Amino acid sequence: MSSEEDLASLARGAGDGDSEAWAEIYRMMAPSIFRLCRRALPTRQDAEDATGEVFLRARLRLSQYDDSRPFAPWLYRVAANHCWDELRKRRRRPELDDSEDEIAKLEAEAPTPQEAVLINESKRSIRRAIATLDDRTRLVVILRYFAEMSYAEIGEVLGISSNFAGVLLLRARRALRTRLGP
Fold first, then answer.
1. Residue 80: which H helix or E strand, with range?
2. What would the mean pLDDT of 170-180 be, rounded to a whole number?
3. Is the pLDDT of residue 164 over 60?
4. Contact between residue 40 and residue 83 where contact means Cβ atoms under 8 Å apart
5. Is 1-92 in CATH node 3.40.50.720?
6. End-to-end Cα, the chain, rounded Å
7. Which fold would CATH assign to domain 101-182?
8. Is this model's pTM higher than 0.90 or not?
9. Residue percentage of the chain with pLDDT more than 70
């Protein structure tokens, strides 16, 4: 059984009140949802709070989930909408938290000290450039490159066409190329 089939089965169980099924959904999906929130929101604390809120909202709205469709994109949509709502409330640019680097923790090989400095500076530059994008475009970039969603999935999550998701990504890549230079 695939991961998506597992999720759909668990979602049906959680919808019927099985708290163990919901706990398993949380265990499977919380890291991905946190990463999405972390890249969309200004601080780690905001992302942790948002992750909890996303799962609370999803649990309350589980009756709205159409189990003929994949569960993960539905949950990503709940998360993206929550992050979007938070960003609209703030109407300010996120401040980067340079004290952490989750991506580096995932790398298997330890780089040399010089490589580590270059890698960290590159990642900071990329995060800063992404942070300058408008909220919707930033979410599209996050969903595409960090959540690894297709254009169709991004469109479904954000309520836009897959073609418009592609247009937003094209504009974002051009803007990032300009900001980051050669």
1. helix 71-90
2. 86
3. yes
4. yes
5. no
6. 45
7. Arc Repressor Mutant, subunit A (1.10.10)
8. no
9. 82
